Amino acid sequence: MRQISFAITSLVATAAISAAFLAQPARAQEGKVNEPGLVSYEIKDYQIPKSLTGKPGDPAQGRKWAITSGTGNCVICHRLPIPEVDFRIGNIGPDLTHVGARLSPGEIRLRIVNPKVVNEDTIMPAYYRVSGLTRVDPKRAGKPMLTAEQVEDLVAYLSSLK
Ligand code: HEC
Q1: Cα of 68 to ligand 1 centre, how many Å?
Q2: Bigger pLDDT: 85 or 63?
């Protein structure tokens, strides 16, 4: 009898501990992030509040990265107010036409750097990570998909879309 009640107690304890972890999967990724070769940054309240470069990016450059293969090419999944792009494609992710009115620059920055913090199952790539990635081209291993400057250019561009 004593053994059974011990077993039940430990089962309940295990369930309570796992529930505590499961309840806050993204919170576990809050705080300082340091990856080799990358600028370190802090995640707070589902945002990266500070610029990765310490200064604002260039929105005109960001617009260019958003449509350029190899430096983002966000338009393969997202609609943006860029008339020269054929938007019969670009409907996999949400429409970003007014994203600057919906999300703060810090929220946009986290979604570009590592959207998995917000949604673990997202199909959107993490553009500023070098670890925890799958199917990386060996030529690109150890390099993020975008530089810190390019991330900031995109943050500046998307934030301007009110
Ligand atoms: C493979 C498709 C894909 C690509 C490429 C992609 N995204 Fe996304 N993105 C998504 C999806 C899907 C979501 C919806 C959120 C989720 O899955 O959690 C999303 C969400 C977002 C959001 C949040 C929008 C909101 O309203 O909450 C932003 C901002 C964003 N993406 C920016 C970008 C930028 C900038 C690029 C290019 C550097 C990019 N995305 C490239 C698929 C993509």
Answers
A1: 15
A2: 63
